[in-house]
Structures are given as C-alpha cells and as structure tokens.
Amino acid sequence: MKNSHRSHYTLLSGLLFCFFYTWSSAFSLISLWLSQKVGLKGTETGMFFSAIALTALCAQPLYGFIQDKLGLRKNLLWAIGCLLLASGPFFIFIFAPLLQVNILLGAAAGGLYVGATFFAGIGALESYTERVSRILGFEFGKARMWGSLGWAAATFFAGMLFNINPNLNFWMASSSAVIFLLLLWRLREVKTDALNQLEYGKPGNLQLADAVALFRLPRFWALIVFVTGVSVYNVYDQQFPVYFSSLFSDVKNGNEMYGFLNSFQVFLEAGGMFLAPFIVNKIGAKNGLLLSGLIMALRVFGSGLAADAVTISCMKLLHAVELPILLIAMFKYITTRFDPRLSATLYLVGFQFITQVCASVLSPLAGHGYDLIGFADTYMIMGMLVLVLTLISGFLLIGEKSRTPPSVLFKKSEIL
C-alpha cells in the first residue's frame, strides 16, 4: 500500500473508531438509562426509538444524495462531526429535562438528534469510506473493523461508568468527537479524477431523477424485500439490555455484565469485519446476504428460547458473525448490480432508510409486545419474520451470473 493510500486508510479507520466510540458511549445503554434513571416503560421507550427511525428515514435519503453529489468532498462529514460534538450537552441538558416535562416532546427531540447524528450519519461515513476504498484499493471491511473496535472500547467501560454516573458516558462521547474532528481535518480529499474513472462519469452530473429512477427497477424492490427482513436486528437490539439485565438478581450487576458482553461481541465483530471480505468474495454477494439473514433469524428466534443469561449471551454473540457479512455483502451487491455513482444513495436509501422505515413501525409494536406477552415470545415472532423474508429473497435477489454493466441498468425493459 502506498504511503498516501496508507494515510487515507489510517485516518478513515480512525474516523470510524471515533464515530462508533461516540455512538456507543452515548447510546449503547440508552434503554437502561430510560428505564432505570428516567423511569420509562417499554411502550414509551418504543416511542423514542420510533422517533429516531422516523428522523433517520427522512435524513438518510437526503444524506445519500448529498454525498453522491459531493463525491469525495468532506462537507457533510464536517456537519456530522459537529453534531457528534454536541452529544454530551444534548443528552444531559436538553433530552433528560424534556423527558421530565413531556415524554412526547422529549421523544421527538431525542429522536431528531439521534436519528440525524448517528443512524443517518453512519451511513454517510461508511459510504464515503467504501468509495475511497474502491478508488485506493483497500478492503472496506478492514477499515470498518476499526468502527467495531471503537464501539467495543466504549461499551467495555459503559456499564461501570453507568453505575457511577450515566452522565460520564455522555461526556466521553463528546470527548471522542473532538478527536473525530481533528482526524477529519487531517484527511485530504482524494483527487476527483480518480473518482471519475471509477464511477462512469462525474458525480456532479448526477440529477435527482437518477436517484428517483431506482424506484422503477425491479431489482431495487427485490433488495427492499431482503432489507425489510434483516431490519429486525435494530428493533431486537433496542431494548435487549433491559431483558438481559432482568435475568440477574442484581440489576446493577446485569448492567455491568451487559457492558462486558457487548464489548466482547463487538470485539469479535471487528475480527469478523477483517474476515468477511474473504467469505463474501468466495460465496458471492447474494449468498452473503442470504447467509447473514439466516444467521440473524437463528439469533433472534434463539433469544426467545433462551432461558438463562449464558444461553442468551451466546445468541447475542452471533451478531458478530452476521453483521460483518451483511455489510460487506451489501456494499458489494449494490456496487455490482446498480450504478456505482449512486452507491451512497443506494446504501442510505436501499438499506439504512428501509431499515428505519421498518423500525419506525416495529419499534412501538415490539415495545407493546414486551409489555404484553414478554420478551421471549416477541423475539420468536420477530425471528420468524426474518426467516420468511430471507427465504423469499433467495428467489428475488440477482445471482452472481448477472454481470450487467451499470451503465445499462436503467433500460426501459427493466422499468416496472
């Protein structure tokens, strides 16, 4: 790897590490904070997560198209960095007081900030990193691995800091954001000529009509069916810490053990990010997507059958296998089945946006299910949904034999 290429890889890896460290510090124990410190019930917490999803689904298409138009310029990343910096003050001085005054108002404000900063912001950063990795010739998964390590580093301490004072985690989030901004300042923009040669034209020539045309492609809707199934993983993770800590006689011990479990899971996930490109290159992008869906179905359904902390911990750790394969296969699928110039739009709309649409619908339903029939039965219903849609996707997704050039993916014969 050339020195200039190594510099971009190192700085982008650092940006992903700091982004995920900030996200994890502020958000990994948010359901525990809302339940134990603020006193929200499952349904009320579900409203907050639904607000996050609604905000993210509005921001993600916008972020995707803006980043595709910007190409390799960093304007959007600077805006996201400033939002990350505000995380500590927001949660402590704005979000918490609003929840005490009015739950609906607090949920709306919290959802607006978290959705725009983290759930939409990560898609922009990941798609930017993936685009640079294709130009400079390094594997996206090896850079994304550092994001997982950032999350693991934060969650390792999150449970202990939470028991001391939850605000410490929020201040750690802002501290990490300072480093994010410093690294972004050091990151030089890749020459646009390299992008033009790779992306079949100038990003600046993209029109909104190009992005809208995706909705007329059958292969785009086939991808949506798959993403609808795997979107359950976000809903599953939202209130999992509450269920996990309830399996311990001492809730504080459960909080701390969840921090260790989540840290260990994401540490394994980082290793998975390193290995996933080899697996996906071997079995193909479509099979990689289907494999991740089947593992997810097993994880969610198995969590419903688990009767103790050890068994459910094993189910949770399957996420370290499933997520790396899903992310790597998703990027390889969208850049080989669609116009690569629209990779950010496809990732943020076809994957992240649809995930949030589903989460906005399923989050309050899942929260109500937790209150009404319990976590275990709700998990089994969610697991069956993932399995059914993954099996259907096996017939709908485009296989490896399809090598249609991106420039002809918008033929009229393909339009519904």
Description of the structure:
With about 425 residues, the protein is mainly α. The chain has a single domain, classed as Growth Hormone, Chain: A, CATH 1.20.1250. Helices cover about 80% and strands about 0% of the residues. It has 20 helices and no strands. The chain is globular, with a radius of gyration of 20 Å. It starts with a helix and ends in a 20-residue tail after the last helix. The model is unreliable at about 195-200 and about 400-415 (pLDDT under 50). Keywords: Cell inner membrane, Cell membrane, Membrane, Transmembrane, Transmembrane helix, Transport. It is a multi-pass membrane protein. This is MFS transporter. Pfam families: LacY_symp (PF01306). InterPro entries: LacY/RafB_perm_fam, MFS_trans_sf.
SSE order? HHHHHHHHHHHHHHHHHHHH
The CATH architecture name reads Up-down Bundle
Q: Report the CATH topology name.
A: Growth Hormone, Chain: A
Total number of distinct structural domains:
1
Going by CATH, the homologous superfamily would be MFS general substrate transporter like domains
Separation, N- and C-terminal Cα atoms: 44 Å
- At the first level of CATH, what is the class? Mainly Alpha
Largest sheet: none
Q: Low-confidence parts lasting 5 or more residues at pLDDT below 50?
A: 194-201, 402-416
Mean pLDDT: 83
InterPro entries: LacY/RafB_perm_fam, MFS_trans_sf
Keywords: Cell inner membrane, Cell membrane, Membrane, Transmembrane, Transmembrane helix, Transport
Subcellular location: Cell inner membrane
Protein name: MFS transporter
